[in-house]
User: Fold this.
Amino acid sequence: MQDKMRKILDKNREKIQYGNLPTYIPELNKAKKDALGIYISMLDGTEVGAGDYEYKFTIQSISKVITLLIALEDRGPEYVFGKVGMEPTGDAFNSMMKLEIVRPSKPFNPMINAGAIAVTSMIKGNTQAERIKRIMDFFKLVTQNPDLRINESVYMSEKQTGDRNRAMAYFMKDVGIIETDVEESLDLYFKQCSIEVTCKDIARIGLFLSNDGKLQSTGEQLISPTYSRMAKAFMVTCGMYNASGEFAINVGIPAKSGVGGGIMAVAPGKMGIGVLGPSLDEKGNSIAGREVLKDFSDEFNLSIF
Ligand code: GLN
Assistant:
């Protein structure tokens, strides 16, 4: 297995030269552009990694899947989907265009920034500290990594330059999509995006979803299988933003990308997969990561279609 994974990485290493590191969050521009790694975590407990699977990067938008699950548990689907839709946008992940066009206003889905910020604002907790602790504890449990932490410089960088996210959040407060404190919700969102992970951590998030919301280590049903199914459906339709259709056709498994260069993917009932390649295409998806996943899915016949 590891041999095959190494071969897939070697084949796709030349793709690293294409694309760019993000500049709109200045701290992300400092990533190692030629890092390339893959890790898989299987339902039978087998785990295998190849390449830079221990390289640390920030989870970014991959976190949106987890906060959706927490919000669904906290508020139930009626409330969550009363405020955030279920449809792909065809627009960039940080687009604000459709927010005002659609009446009544509703972000299209929880995977784009507007929808994710709204979802994060729904997470319960008496204090801000309690909310961030709930998010971190959930991540630590699912990744089985008690050492997960927030990368403070990325967090500060996001907070300082997140004016587009801030603008969307204030708009959503105005139209009643966000019902809590805007700055606190944004702060929570910037923090969840700045959690530092490796391919191994995100592979284990994938494993959790491939196991329908049950912890593989203890067998505990942490979240409802229905919510896990919803999350995977969103990953298929919106997880790679306005490249989700192409990814579904070429790779065929639920996946979620982040501008830190990671992609978390799920082979339902089989395994979670984490890949990393920090250089992004114009849609914000890892170029090398996407190609590695395509070859991996082909090699092991993982497409769900
Ligand atoms: N923190 C990033 C942002 O808000 C997340 C975007 C992403 O990973 N696609 O823009």
